[in-house]
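Deviation from plan, reported transparently: 2-(acetylamino)-2-deoxy-D-mannose complex.
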Amino acid sequence: MKDFSGVYAALLTAFDEKGAVNFDAVGKLVERNIASGLDGMYVAGSSGEAILMSEEERIAILEFVAKKTAGRVKLIAHIGSASTDSAVRMAKCAEKFGYDAISAVAPYYYAFSKEAVKGYYSDIINSTSLPMIIYNFPGANGFGGMLELVDELIDNPKLMGVKHTSVNLFDLERFKHLKKPLVVFNGYDEMLIAGLSMGADGGIGSTYNFLGKEIVAIYKAFKAGDLKTAQEIQTKVNRIIETMIPYGVFAMEKAVLTELGIPMGDCRKPFLPLSEEGKAAAKKIAADLK
Ligand code: MN9
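Because the crystal trials were delayed, the predicted structure below was used instead.
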């Protein structure tokens, strides 16, 4: 199996003034991420606002990014949905488009039982030949039983890894020490070196879209055993993330990228447009990066 370790941008989706996907801008962002030295992209996940997009739009993004990337970096397709059937349809498309792996958040909205969530993952995993990276994001859907569930699914040879978006780094470490070695990704960018210290094989993050070079430098320094350098860059990154949080992280990331020359547009409703203060803060972040 491919070596999946490394750092992946959780690709943002650009929208035009009418709110439609702006493929031209998405293409530019793909090129920026590849040029930053990132190992790959995680496509149509939370950061890509996939939850606010139709199945057709998600499939169109998956296809576009695969064609644009053409094998230059690794690609993970997020195909998670509230509906198993929809997730399976998107997983089959990801396989057809040549993705390296699929990933799915637990089904949301209804408080599904652990057995139901287990059925969802089994159905998706059995629908393609691709490896699966389970997206553990308890903050989004309230599903907190993922460690136990992954342990129950561990014998499935296609279960390959976990994207762990949680501040519970004890669980992150435990995912690394189940019956078989899983590939574990750190999900909160502001805690990247903490996740790596607890055994994560890499990270997947939204800020990587504009801080790709810094993230690659953190990862390389950490791997080389230079914790001091890794901490210094993490602190630089975290000063920026701290500024973004009050205004909305995705809207701020889009505004920074727009300042850097890629017109990302607004986030989809019900996200609100970025405030004037937020725009000024984004301008400053972009100016400091230039
Ligand atoms: O994909 C992102 N996760 C979520 C990863 O947004 C839930 C992160 O990159 C965060 O946006 C980032 C800021 O909190 O760490």
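The first strand starts at residue 6 and ends at 10. We consider this an acceptable substitute for the interim report.
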